[in-house]
Amino acid sequence: MSETAKLTRGSIRGHLVTQTAPMVLGVAAIMSVGLIDAYFIGQLGARELAAVAFIFPITIALSSLGVGVMVGINSVIARALGEGDVARAERRANFGAVFALATGILMGAALYLLLDPLFRLMQASDALLPLIRDYMRPYALGLPVLLLQMGLNGVLRGQGEARKTSLVSLTYAAANWVLDPLLITGAFGFEGFGIAGAAYATVLGFAIAVLVALFLIHTSQLSINPATIRHINFGDSSAAILRVAGPAAFSNAINPIGLSVLTALLASQGEAAVAGFGAAGRLQSFATVPLLGLSGSIGAIVGQNWGAQAYDRARRAMFEAALFCVGYGLIMAVVLFFTGDWFARFFTEDPAVVDQFSRYLAIAVWGYAGFGLLITANGALNAVDRAGWALVQSAARVFLVMLPFGWLLRGVWGAEAIYGAELVANIVGGAAATFIVWRILTRDPKSGQAKTKH
User: Fold this and answer.
1) Which residues pair with 192 in a beta bridge?
2) How far is residue 6's CA from residue 84's CA, in Å, rounded to a whole number?
3) Tell me, what's the pLDDT at 276?
4) Which of 17, 90, 354, 419 has minimal CB crowding within 10 Å?
5) How many Cβ atoms from other residues are within 10 Å of residue 189's Cβ?
6) pTM of whole model > 0.85?
7) Torsion angle in degrees (nearest 10) through CA of 63, 68, 74, 75
């Protein structure tokens, strides 16, 4: 068992707690940025909010790319440390940071050059395009900073430095909390930049987070010294990261795509249904933060133990995580099932919207446990270099279960078909993901046969 990988020693349950708790804080902080942005942009007017509605799917897709790169770097570092090869882990860390920055430069340049064709394809009107440009041009120029920050987070995650990773996320969020009101609407006699100010705040927040991440990595086991990549095989290292990063990026993007299509299907049921669905979705995003945090922390634990050939510990980590997903998911389902109306009135007093909000929660909450199993299994699969399976099961959940269910039954069940589609997709997806990850984790990676001795 490797002496260089701290997660290969000690209590598995203890590692799950100490790695997940900071992740929960970090995820909640990142989510708060969207709420702060929406609040201050909303003060500018309806046109600005409409422009953000077009911008949001693109920024989510780009963030998914960044998450994929982060997960890829996390995976290769965790396994190298688990194998006891600190030198290789450090080379991969430095290559990963350069790889993330280069990816950001290429994607940022492409986004800047294709802004108008992209948003015209999305049917943005001529009245909204100037506002969209105001936001997206600085965002595109700052995309390399976003990718670098996520790459550095991957370096910290792979070492099991969950607290430091969380501190980077908190730094980014805190910077936005301060900068948003100053740069969007203005203060102290400064008029602000309007919608462009939100982009400036985001990019500056990422830049500050990069500086914090570099400092925290300097205090960790690995160090950032780009000179080390002179001794690395670029082809092999790129392939190792991309083998995980590519599928992980698509896996993260699939769920927002599915929910966007469900929203479009729900539009035929009236504005109240769409409003209730959207408002309840915001509540749901916070209710599932512990599950998202767990999915972010499981990779380092499973990856380090898998690299150290401590397969029993990797399986134990997944088993304990699955128990938490089921327990927490069911408890939260009961709480929200009985408090749906009460929470709905925090968002609106419209009786029709309150009714749809409550009906959605009454159905969808019973799938939280399955959703937790799915995303946690994906985190474990990415860690053991089986990201392709994570992508397949995420795609199957949306395109083979969720969307067909909602499409075929909406004429009979109305809005309940859309709510039920999410429930069924989470239950089926969670069950399938659990089966797949357990089959993979109970096989010897060298022989491909089921392990009977540990």
Assistant:
1) none
2) 11
3) 73
4) 17
5) 5
6) no
7) 170
Query: CB of 320 within 8 A of CB of 14?
Result: no
Q: Is 166 exposed, middle or buried (0-12, 13-18, 19+ CB in 10 A)?
A: buried
If one compares 264 and 11, the residue with the highest pLDDT of the two is: 11
Q: What is the helix, strand, coil percentage profile of the chain, to 5? A: 85, 0, 15
Neighbours of 278 (CB within 10 A): 17
Determine the 3-state secondary structure of 87 from DSSP: helix
DSSP string, 120-184: HHTT--TTTHHHHHHHHHHHHHTHHHHHHHHHHHHHHHHTT-HHHHHHHHHHHHHHHHHHHIIII
pLDDT the model gives residue 280: 75
325 contacts 376 by C-beta, under 8 angstroms: yes
Give the pLDDT confidence of 86-103 residue by residue, as tens digits: 888 888 888 889 989 999
Dist. CA 193–CA 197, nearest whole Å: 5
Residue type, 235: G
What's the farthest any 2 CA atoms get from each other in the chain? Answer: 71
Instruction: Mention every residue, 6+ apart, whose C-beta is less than 8 A from residue 347.
Output: 279, 282, 283, 353, 357
Residue pair 98/111 in contact by the 8 Å Cβ criterion: no
Assign 308 to helix, strand or coil.
coil
First-residue to last-residue Cα distance in the chain: 12
- With b for 16 or more beta-carbon neighbours within 10 A and e for fewer, the 168-179 pattern comes to bbbbbbbbbeeb
Distances (CA, A) of 220 to 31, 164, 366: 27, 9, 41
pLDDT per residue as tens digits for the range 93-140:
888 899 899 999 999 999 999 999 988 887 777 888 999 999 999 999
Residue 433 pLDDT class (50, 70, 90 cuts): very high
